[in-house]
Amino acid sequence: MLAAERREYLLDLLTRTGKVVAKDVAAELGISEDSVRRDLRDLAAEGLCQRVYGGALPVSPAVVDYDARQAVAPDGKRKVASAAVGLVQPGGSLILDGGTTALAVARALPKGLVCTVITHSPTIAAALLDHPQAELFLLGGRVFKHSAVTCGAAAVEAAQNVSADLCLLGVTGVHPEAGLTTGDAEEAAMKRALSARAADTYILASSEKIGTASQFRVLPWEKVSGLITDADPDDTVVEELKALGVTVVVAG
């Protein structure tokens, strides 16, 4: 089989089954695992898959820059946001992550809801400036322009001095095996710091992120209270997550 044919086979396998296991493909095609790994490296370099130990997973479409992400699945994000605001109790405190789905949450918070919002996103803070009942705390630090959030040592230290009832966290990849992932190491560390300061953490993930992975692990499934998604409840990946004991809140 030619290299181009192998690449097409690997991409088709990713689409059909949601993963590539290098040793299985090598056995099936009668080639070495090294050949499969080289093909996967080439595909990953082109942004067509996310390499993981032993093979590859579908790459998340949510790793593009902030402006581009705003055009990805806006209806799904609004549905997720609508379900998420129902978890915010009157008088409660919320740590709200950055990102376009979190921005949809900020815009969906009822104007009459008395709450405290803690965020490391200037964009989220700006969206809540005209909210009449939300007390707002903005965590400072180095601004990561790709996602319009603060991160780094100063931001993590600031996060360690707050606490909240609820954390709503965005990620770029949601996968039963790879867990919850994002595309930047410092951003992943900041998300962990935010989650650690809340009694409950729910993941915001519109359907295009389900079954995909990015390079850096944010949290394992046992560290979160649940997942809010607009994905089909009968989706294979959603069923796998439920089998793992993950609470899935389906946004209709």
Automatic annotation (TrEMBL):
Q: Which Gene3D superfamilies match?
A: 3.40.50.1360
Q: Which residues form the HTH deoR-type domain?
A: 3-58
Is Transcription there in the keyword field? yes
- SMART domains (UniProt xref): DeoRC, HTH_DEOR
Keyword set, alphabetical order: Repressor, Transcription, Transcription regulation
Function as written in the Swiss-Prot or TrEMBL entry: Repressor of the lactose catabolism operon. Galactose-6-phosphate is the inducer.
Note the PANTHER family from the entry.
GLYCEROL-3-PHOSPHATE REGULON REPRESSOR, HTH-TYPE TRANSCRIPTIONAL REGULATOR SRLR-RELATED
For this entry, the protein name equals Lactose phosphotransferase system repressor
**What species is this protein from?**
Streptomyces lasiicapitis
